[in-house]
Design a protein that fits this description.
The protein is mainly alpha-helical and about 100 residues long. It contains 5 helices and 4 strands, in the order H-H-E-H-H-E-E-E-H. The protein has helices at about 5-25, 30, 40-55, 55-70, 100, and strands at about 40, 75, 90, 95.
Length: about 100
């Protein structure tokens, strides 16, 4: 297998999770309105965390964020932690691709 195919296969779970969150944000999230105490919203935070850290770590970060979001929380700006060596690219639609897929 080539590096392109392996890179694509490794990103499938991450992009499935991104797709699920995008559907949630488009269909279900508007029904609740603007109720999150933090900015960005918990779903946007989790989306960014999964894009940058993968499904396992991103889901844990998102769950921790949701647990912090309660009526007594101070709220405020709380961005997902950055990853120092992020080696992928995020498309305008939010999906994660290998840099090898961008050229060629």
């Amino acid at each position: 297998m080539t590096a392109r195919v392996i890179g694509f296969l490794l990103l499938i779970p991450r992009n499935v999770a991104v797709g699920v969150l995008k559907v949630y944000r488009a269909v279900i999230s508007p029904l609740y309105g603007d109720v999150c105490r933090y900015y960005p919203s918990c779903s946007a935070y989790t989306l960014t965390a999964i894009q940058h850290h993968g499904v396992a770590v991103g889901s844990v970060l998102g769950a921790r964020r949701i647990l912090r979001c309660h009526p007594w929380a101070a709220g405020g700006v709380d961005d997902a932690p950055a990853k120092n060596n992020f080696r992928y690219a995020v498309t305008p639609r939010g999906f994660v691709v290998s840099p090898l897929h961008r050229k060629g």
